Amino acid sequence: MDEPWSIGVDLGGTKLEAAHVDALGRVRQRVRKATNIKGGPSAIIEDVINCIWTLRNGVDSSPAGVGIGVAGQVDKECGKVIFAPNLDWRDVPLQNDLQNSIGLPVVVTNDVRAATWGEWLHGAGRGCDDLLCMFVGTGIGGGVVSGGHMLAGCNNTAGEVGHITVDLNGPTCTCGNRGCVEAFAGGWAITRLARESVAADPEGGRLLLEMAGGRIDEINAATVARGVRGGDPMARELLDSVAGALIAGASNLINAFNPCRLIMGGGVIDGIPELIKRIDKGVRKQALAAACSSLIVMPAGLRTDAGVIGAAALAVRSFAK
Amino acid sequence: MDEPWSIGVDLGGTKLEAAHVDALGRVRQRVRKATNIKGGPSAIIEDVINCIWTLRNGVDSSPAGVGIGVAGQVDKECGKVIFAPNLDWRDVPLQNDLQNSIGLPVVVTNDVRAATWGEWLHGAGRGCDDLLCMFVGTGIGGGVVSGGHMLAGCNNTAGEVGHITVDLNGPTCTCGNRGCVEAFAGGWAITRLARESVAADPEGGRLLLEMAGGRIDEINAATVARGVRGGDPMARELLDSVAGALIAGASNLINAFNPCRLIMGGGVIDGIPELIKRIDKGVRKQALAAACSSLIVMPAGLRTDAGVIGAAALAVRSFAK
User: Of A20, A51, A145, A318, which sits 20 to 30 A from A242 (CA to CA)?
Assistant: First the structure.
């Protein structure tokens, strides 16, 4: 008998990746393309279709279906992409268009939700019915599994864990509010704060500036991560602010959801792995004791593959007989 | 055929209430007692048993079961009360003890979760699959229904919506942290802030002080509510701080859960009903647009009966054939 498999697609503003994923959540083959934003939805959908043909080519059996994670808001019922700012899409009937073209069942979800499916079914969350994923990259996103159900909410936007206010008087956020976790700990915010700190104190910021080739506008979150690893005092001070916000935001979510596992991933966490330990220690002090009595804080297991693996696993769950 | 019914019990630190609730969630009969905390668990359990006998007396049919909401943390599997500070209970096997004594199936839950069951099945949340209840009384508690499931979490503590940090540098809370919603908007916090404000500005606080019979330590949240309704400037300033914290906390929860309905109840909301409108307006500004696009903010429907009605409805759901 042929081994069952499915196709997972991760569609972001920069790149499009599609993978043949087996029943155990292993990537067997993958294809990547730059996202052709200028060509509009039809050009991108054509690229997705071509990637799917490439993956099917030479495989005798048919995949159970296609799962696709998109960086945007998705209609739960019909798989339409309501709004995807990074793709410049509004109201694109992605599920319908893809299904009609490839003759396979398609399920569309948000990219961070797809990554949460991946971590839940094949990553750090395996076997756990109550978990919270926080992915800390340029932005901060996440997903929540509670009582064995992936939470979707009323408009399919549940799990917006980046825009949790932790300081009513804090720095401004891209969402228009002040003091969101993301405004302290998202990659863009770390970059902003680091440049401001170096500008305000050039002597203290000497090492960070050096690492950025002497150009303040080349300092970014990765520079700070290198500074932290090198023991630079200013970088470590910046880290305190990042950690403080993540601890406060995670504590809020732990009190609200009471997860068994808090799974942390994304570029900022990968760049500064000690954040996991600090968050672990911090939330136990800050969240309610009963809400963390069984909590484990752990790094994500699938790294950048979480999206394609999760989208493929969602397709299996939705369509496999 | 006899009409099906069940018994709901609301066990708090001050009073114990039990009610005969019919299949439509209407209270047909009720009994109340002061909670005999000094007598320890056995005295309270005996009082509960007596209340249940009173309610069964003269009714020909047997209830489907008993639901009991307790102000404390409850073990999901065995219905043991792990910790109930207001009752001074630790590890009391309430479900087991009651079942053995009364020969009816018993389900135990947290008191605020019971009230959420009530609002969901028979109150403001009827027919809705995604809702968030916030009860703002002396403390702040709540419950969450997502995708038609009441969230419980890993240790049955999901829905702790009072200890959401909204200001890392804010006032101290009873939980040991700073700037929780409850530390601004819980009844005890309003009382604290009002007394501090009057002490700092006796002239501005003249009316509040007068309403409390000239004694600053008699000022409480109800005094502030009366001052708000009377247009007192200091009371209205205090209200701004309460509303701001509730808006920030509710926005965090709306982003995280994406509910269709935000249902607000409890003494503080009942005392200052204009809070509902302010919160409605505020969350639409502060939460993400996609997360509130279908949101309705509304007052709780069952007032102080939510607990017994919800506990009884949970019993029906758990035991009715």
Answer: A145
